[in-house]
Each structure stands twice: as C-alpha cells, then as structure tokens.
User: Fold Mechanosensitive ion channel MscS domain-containing protein from Tengunoibacter tsumagoiensis.
Amino acid sequence: MLLLMSLSVPRSFGFDTTGGVEIISMIGNIVLSVGVIIAALIIGLYLRRRLVQLLKKTVLDESISQILGGLIVLLPLALGSVIALAVWRNDLLGIVADFLHLNPKDVPGLLGNIVATFLLAGLGVGLARTVKNLTIRGLSENRIDINIRTFIGRLFYTITLVIAGFWILSIWSISSSNLVAAASVITVAITFAIQDILKDLVAGFYILLERPFFIGDQISITIAPTVIYVGKVESVELRATKLRLVGGEEITIPNAILFGNAVINNTYYGERRATIIVKVHKDDYSQEHTIPSIIEELKKVDNVLEKPEPIALLNSYVDNTFVLVVRFWIPSGQTHDISEMVYALHTLLPNADLEAKEPGGMI
Assistant:
C-alpha cells in the first residue's frame, strides 16, 4: 500500500507529460480505492447479517434491528472510504472543508453532529415502536380493552419521539424555549379549533376506562325528550360509538353525547320487564276471572319468563273503564318485541284497548 500511495497522483490532476508513470499511478489508485471499498462493504454486510440474526431473538422492534444493522455496515464502509480518499489526497479534512466552505477545524464536529442526528433519529423511532409494542403487549395480560391499550401505546410512542427530538436539538445547540413557546401558541389555537373533538376524545377515554357497556350490549340513549335511540353496540372508539338500531340502521353517536346524557344498558341483566296497559269496559270485566285469565294467557307465550311471574294489577277506573297494569319479564340477551304478548291479550280481550309502555323503543 505504501508503494502504491507513493505513486499517487498529485493534487492537481492535470497531466503535464504524456508519460506512462502518471497513468500507471492513477490505475493503481483506482484499483486500490475500489478494492478497499469492496472489502469494507463485504465485511459490513457480513457483520450486519450476524447482528440482525442476533437481534431477532430479542424484544427490539424490527426497525431498531435494521438501523443497528445499517450502522454496522457504515462503520467499515466509512473506514474504507477514508482510506480510499487518503490514497488520492492526504488532506481529507481539507477536501470536506473546501466543499462545505468551512474551517477545517470545524469539519470533525459537523460530521459528528450529522452522524449523531441520524443515529438518534433512527434509534428514537425504533425505540418508540418497541416501547409501544411492549406497552400494548404488557397491558393485554391485564385484559384491558384493546382501544385503551392502543391509546396508551401511542401515547408512549409520541413521548419517546418528543424526547428524541429535543435531544437532537440539544446536539445542534438549538434553544428549545422558542420552540416550546411556538408549540404552546399552536396548541392553544388548535385546542379552540377542535374543542368539540377533544370533548369526544376525553369522553371516549372515560367510556373505555369505566366500560359502562360492552360491544354487543343493547343500550338506550335519551338525547332529547322525544329522541331516544335503542340499538346494539357495534364498536366503541375514542371519538364516537356506533350502534345498530333495532330498525337495522347504523348510527354513529359522538362520545360527548353519551357522556352528557342518560344511557340505559338494556342487557346488563339477563331479563327485562315489559309493561302493557289494558283498558277493559266494565261490561267485559270480571273480578274473579279477568286478571287470572290474563296471567295464564301470558304464561303460554314462549318469551315470557316463569320467574319473576307475570302480574296484573287493577290501577284505576275511569269513564266506565277498568285500567289494568300488566307486567311480565322477557329475556334481554337479544332484541325482543312484545307483539306476541299484545296479540295474546287481544285474543283474550278483543274489545280491550292495549298500550305497551315498556320496554321503550322495542315495539
């Protein structure tokens, strides 16, 4: 190598003579430079393969493994590049300084900052993904809802990236106070602009944490005195909850509405009570037979539970009409209607007026 370096071409690559010495020297430099680069690349690729195989057995994210593998390739490649440049010119720092218009003394620090920036950026992303995956995996062992696990994992992912970003700023001696102030102003402006969305997100986090209902439950939501939604919960997300109404439609309700209004979980228990108001004219009413007949008729309907038993009470007498309150229990595991019960009572009392009161929104 010393012999070939002694034959290297002068700094100015002009050819003053046509002799063969300069051509031989240039060919030697080219061969030596290419050989050094190829050898460094082969060594780097071998080391990368070995390192990636070892890291696959750890909990590190795939991106971290690839970044570390790339760094292993860069180290011998950088060393080979330095040797190859040194073959052509001993003043390596002078080359870089002339290209960047810098003082040669500042070049090592600049190169170090660039390398550290790329290294921290890559490792920061990889570490953030690793922390997110470990968080989600760890919380899954405690049977925490998947949406909460994902939210917490993304939160730690963002925090890790922010820390890596401030670390990179410190490398370049950039004051973070101005960035923090600008970020605060932007955050306040965004908060005012999307305050409704933030309300939904906060309410959604509360719903996911407290879990007043689960996917598959049937709930009733009273939004206004005349607006009641009854449906099966299809999904619970951070911003909104989706219901499949008893009519078959899908509705998306913002979580802030769920948080601020009454929500009834119709399927929290295994059974639900239904109420039918029966109005019977005095000529059709018998104190000894009417109420027992109603109870016996309801017991014949399949959807009526035996326990608690159906009951019928005489509630009032208005305008020659007896008003009876009939209560019975039906399963709540699925959406039921009470049309069978109404039809059975109509068959028993064809002249009576029937009005279903409970469950609301089911008929």
